[in-house]
Amino acid sequence: MAPVRTVGPAAAEATNTGLRPNWADMLVGIVGDRAADAILTDRAWPALVAAVNAADPAQWNPHELLDLADTLLHHGADDDDHHAVRLDEYARLLTWRVELLVTHSSHATDAVPPADAPPTPDDEAAAEAAGLSDPWADTLTGQPTVDTDHELAAVDEDYLAALTATEPPPEPGVDLGAEELDRYEDLDFDDFAADVLAAPDRFAAPSDLAECIALRYELTAQLAELDTDMAQLREAINTGTSAHQQAMAPHVLALRAAADHQFAAASDTAGHHHDLMMAEQLIEDLTNQATALRRTAAQLRAADTTDLDPLSDDEAPDLAALRAEADATALDWRITAAVADRDALAAVYADANTRLEEAIAESGGVRVTDTDVELMRLQASELDELNLADLRARRADLTTRIYRIDNRLNHVHALTHTAHHHRDTYLMPTPATGPVATPDVVAPSATQPATEATATAVVEDVDAELRDWLRADPLRAMSDDQLTAHLRTLTRRHTLAVDDLRTSRPAPERTPRVRAEHAELADTVDRITTARTAGLALADAADRVTDARTELAVLPPAGRGRKARAEHDQHHQRLAEAVAAAERQHQYLAAAHEQTRRDVGVPEHQWDELTARAADTATLARELAAAEQTDARARQLHQTAIDDRDAAAAAIAHARAEVARRHDLPDEARAVEDSIRTALDHTGTQAEPTTVPSASAALPPRTSDLPPDTAPRRDSGYDI
Question: In this structure, which of 318, 550, 567, 648 has its CB flanked by the most CB atoms within 10 Å?
């Protein structure tokens, strides 16, 4: 007998036939609905069929083989999403698992052979006749057979004994002395948890501040690039130009061409099949009616007619039986014609099936429908959606890391600001720090010349003028440390104002949207009114049809004479025409009413609610006023943020100009100004620095401007 040739999995993968073995329905119970659909439509499906059919039926049945292969496939994937089995790889991976189980079957390697039966007297007699002393000796060599299993067992025992007698080699990099070993000798398993290192937090921010800032810029750039990739991929998915859709486009176009080529033949086949089924149903109905009539005729002939009144107007049973038999005979004629029509339809249906098979053969040999084409396209789109989900997961990770780094930087900034605040508080001179120091006044003596006294008076006048000039601007009266702290505060406020302006982008205007909604509501109510008017006209038309039909039904019969019959016929014709006209008008109005109902675009049970809402002008006016108020508030907040930013920028420019002026002063002039500032500090006449003019003075204070004990805490997110 010639060996049966089977198609190998590698060769079968290149083919795509409509294979449906008897175990194909078991896949749903093993792998689930989605995975089963993916496997049945995958290119590796023929390879899986070949691998399962190649299994030994004595060792495997298809259900157990597929179930074990799927269990091992998921058992080796752990529980990480990154190692989960993808739908587009399910069939190929399952095929590999089945091939491994079939090729290296544990049933074939671990099965213990049955024990040999003891020799029978016939075996011993046959051995002695052949000149063999051992009935189990080898017929070729004449030597008794050797139990190789026992010899291998002995070799294994010797090998294992040699291994256990040898000390294991020391592990590289592990050098523990007796003291270290004694340290762990009396510990329980739970006590080792103190020595176990916790898994590193992959979202933790670096401890170095410079590294945090550099990583923040890098992650921000990666996040921007990832957002661009997500937007491009989403746009590509929506427009059908993504990677998987483009890669699958030739296959989808080929399936579409095959489906279009088969569509006409398939439609003809379906139509002829429907006609054939209707003919079969007609034959069955006519046969049942004829049988019922013959049964009725037999009952009428068998009925007892002795008690019947010969003068009665009722039809005699014999005549009724004859009429039933005549009707049954007429039905037989119709059945004969219907059978002939059925046979003709069967021939046409067979021709249509032949054309469909030819179309299938011309388009690749596989039946393809619109559903198959759509499933192929959806699978490609699903792969792109999976890629988009991966990008979303990466974006979530980047956002979390940036949030952790921002928390770290904010924490460091808060600590630094607090330290500087305390330093300025304790180092700034106040009137209570010591006695008020007055500058020494040099009084002119008799020995001093008059010119010296005059020079002293001039110097005092110059100092007074300089002191007044410094006191005119609070920034000039500040010490260097105070000016630096004030500039730092202004810079922080400017940064916060810029951040507020960046994050508080003006929302789209609500007023135009509310006006558009009100206009759409008015249009909808107008369409509802039109539909209701058409409904009333339809009801009136239905009443006219009913009246016309009633008038035609109650028309009295024609009288005697030709003239009376002619008048009756004319009257009947006018009434019939009136009924036909009323029915045509009713059909026209019914179509118009249905079209107006569809034009409304809203379910009919919501019409009353929409009409009442459109009639409530006060509510509509309040909605419009609220929208206008919201838009005005949004514009005010946005302008406030702009004013805060500009005011902070102007104050920073002014402070930096003061710093530059001091830097350009000569040392003598710088010393004179510092002495005057010190004197102003000691006398307590220094003017307080003016706050930055802000347009948000009437608004609630920002959280960052509140004291630490009153500012609301943000407990969401990750801890630093």
Answer: 648
Vertex 19: Cα angle to 17 and 57 (nearest 5): 135
Report the alpha-carbon distance of residue 120 to residue 141 in Å, rounded: 22
The CA–CA distances, whole Å, from 430 to 262, 425, 470, 672 equal 98, 10, 19, 20
Measuring CA to CA, how many Å separate 135 from each of 129, 141, 371, 505, 579? 10, 13, 70, 101, 110
> Which SS3 state, helix, strand or coil, does residue 479 take?
coil
Residue 693: C-alpha distances to residues 127, 428, 477, 643 (Å):
122, 25, 19, 9
- CA 285/CA 262 separation, integer angstroms: 34
Alpha helices by DSSP H, 303-316: none
Maximum distance among all Cα pairs of the chain, rounded to whole angstroms = 179
DSSP code per residue over 94-143: HHHHHHHHHHT-HHHHHPPPPPPPPPPHHHHHHHHHTT-S-TTB-TTT-S
Res. 560: pLDDT tops 50: yes
Reported pTM: 0.32
**How far apart are the C-alpha atoms of 674 and 482, rounded to whole Å?**
12
Write out pLDDT tens, residues 119-159: 777 777 766 665 555 545 544 444 555 544 444 445 566 66
What's the token pair of residue 422? 């305390």
CA dihedral over 464, 470, 472, 474, signed as positive or negative: negative
Phi, psi at residue 144, to the nearest 5°? -65, 150
Task: Give the pair of three-digit tokens for residue 362.
Answer: 């011309």
